[in-house]
UniProtKB/TrEMBL annotation:
Lineage top rank: taxon: Bacteria
Classification of source organism: Bacteria, Bacillati, Actinomycetota, Actinomycetes, Streptosporangiales
Designated name of the protein: FtsK/SpoIIIE domain-containing protein
Gene3D superfamilies: P-loop containing nucleotide triphosphate hydrolases
Sequence intervals crossing the membrane: 34-52, 72-93
Keywords from the UniProt entry: ATP-binding, Membrane, Nucleotide-binding, Transmembrane, Transmembrane helix
Positions bound to ATP: G247, V248, T249, G250, A251, G252, K253, G254
Length: 470
């Protein structure tokens, strides 16, 4: 007697595939004949021997010279050759040290760093940091093309995997820096699928900078105010832009302001440039107030100064309308820099709401209309939050000194700045003046350090140029 199924039960054949089960195709395994493998190895060896003189000419030539000398002259001749080369190297090093470092020292260091650091750790660092790509169960890595060295950094030239972009590396600069034991990493795009990774071997900004010499004549589009991480001069552009400087107390905002003013001194003296100062704390700019054509230290006087600047700017724009599109500093129409220390006092902290509103309107007007007619706003700020300063986007160039929080980095330098290596919240408190700069013309932040202008330097500046300004 057959057993009847229970009501509601469904029967299914155990041999039928389940709905979630699909057909999987696998690559067939084919055994390669031994003769093919041997031929492949022989071909690789022959190709290596043929290409080696072209890929490593110095090494091949040196090895060949040693072998020939030993074959014809024996060990004595080889010893004599080594002694002659040592004397030549010593004379070269003493007489032309720069040439010796470029041709010998840095090349040997690059060869060693290539083998011992980058080639050795390349695969694990890129895989762990997420820069290795996979396709059809195969892993593809960017290829190291060359390594160059100088006295401060290594430059690793890399060929990208097809389908990737330099942005992928820009978003992993922190991982790359730590992976190769470098203080930082910077990505430079050379061309399609061709980038250079810059790894400093030591922090070139660890030593403080004294006040820089006063330039003669000054270039208002490139004022020397400090040093960049690559060892070159940090030149700040003021003419034709506006600059926002943000940093906590003690981060070095005063160094940036006074270095910029110091670099402008000859232009201030000949009347082609003016500095108008607003100093609510009465502690920073007041020390050299003789250098300012106009000066304010209260909310009411600061608003009056800003509104006067707006009036002057609009009058100049009316004269320029239909006649010229850019400003050239002259005594009749000087370049005017409005320096605002602690701008948040005027935009957020002043008890009078009318003063806050008028200040915000005047700053917005200057920053949106002033740079084409020779007016620049150089503002310093501690707290970059929007409710404190909602005009950040009107400043094309931004400088982030030491900040309190990681989120503030993107507030100041723009979205994605931290992913490109701007770790302003991790700046050592013992390094005042160290900052990250993001310019209007480049999205990549650059690490810099401003020169320190001491009280004695400011006094000397006021004594030497203050009377001429007055």
């Amino acid at each position: 007697m057959m057993r009847q199924p229970k009501v509601g039960a469904t029967q299914s054949s155990p041999t039928l595939p389940t709905p979630a089960q699909g057909v999987r195709f696998t690559t067939p395994i084919i055994e390669t004949p031994g003769i093919v493998v041997l031929a492949s190895l022989v071909w690789r060896l022959v190709r290596l021997l043929v290409l080696m003189p072209f890929r490593f000419p110095v090494m091949v030539a040196s090895t060949a010279a040693v072998v020939v000398c030993w074959w014809y002259l024996g060990w004595v001749g080889l010893s004599v050759l080594a002694g002659v080369l040592s004397v030549i190297s010593l004379v070269w090093w003493r007489m032309w040290p720069d040439s010796y470092r470029y041709c010998v020292t840095w090349r040997l260091l690059a060869w060693w760093r290539h083998l011992a650091v980058y080639r050795r750790h390349w695969q694990p660092v890129l895989v762990i940091s997420g820069l290795a790509e996979s396709y059809q169960e195969r892993r593809y890595l960017p290829r190291i093309r060359s390594v160059r060295c100088n006295d401060r950094a290594d430059y690793v030239r890399v060929s990208l995997v097809a389908g990737t972009s330099p942005v992928d590396f820009e978003h992993r600069v922190v991982e790359l820096a730590h992976g190769f034991a470098a203080p930082s990493c910077r990505v430079t795009v050379n061309g399609p699928r061709d980038i250079t990774l810059e790894f400093p071997r030591h922090d070139t900004l660890s030593e403080p900078l004294d006040a820089l010499p006063v330039p003669e004549p000054p270039d208002l589009g490139a004022l020397p105010v400090g040093k960049r991480e690559d060892g070159t001069a940090w030149k700040l552009r003021l003419h034709g832009t506006h600059v926002l400087v943000v940093g906590v107390t003690g981060a070095g905002k005063g160094s940036v302001l006074w270095s910029a003013i110091r670099a402008m001194l000859p232009a201030i003296a000949d009347g082609t440039a003016q500095v108008w100062g607003i100093d609510p704390k009465r502690m920073e700019l007041a020390y050299g107030r003789e250098l300012f054509a106009r000066y304010a230290d209260t909310g009411e006087s600061a608003v009056a100064l800003l509104e006067h600047a707006v009036t002057q700017m609009q009058e100049r724009a009316e004269r320029y309308a239909g006649k010229q599109r850019s400003h050239t500093p002259t005594k009749a129409d000087p370049f005017v820099v409005v320096v605002l220390d602690e701008v948040a006092f005027l935009t957020a902290y002043h008890p009078d709401r009318d003063v806050r509103k008028r200040s915000e309107n005047a700053i917005a007007t200057l920053t949106s209309q002033g740079r084409s007619v020779g007016f620049c706003v150089l503002a310093a700020l501690q707290d970059p939050r929007k409710e404190v300063m909602n005009l950040r986007n009107l400043f094309p160039d931004k400088i982030a000194l030491r900040l309190d929080e990681a989120s503030q980095v993107d507030m100041v330098l723009g979205e994605g700045a931290r992913e490109r290596g701007a770790e302003a919240h991790l700046i050592d408190p013992t390094l005042p003046g160290v900052a990250y700069v993001r310019l209007e013309t480049s999205p990549s932040p650059v690490r810099v350090r401003a020169a320190f202008v001491s009280d004695e330097d400011i006094t000397a500046m006021a004594d030497g140029y203050g009377s001429e300004v007055a």
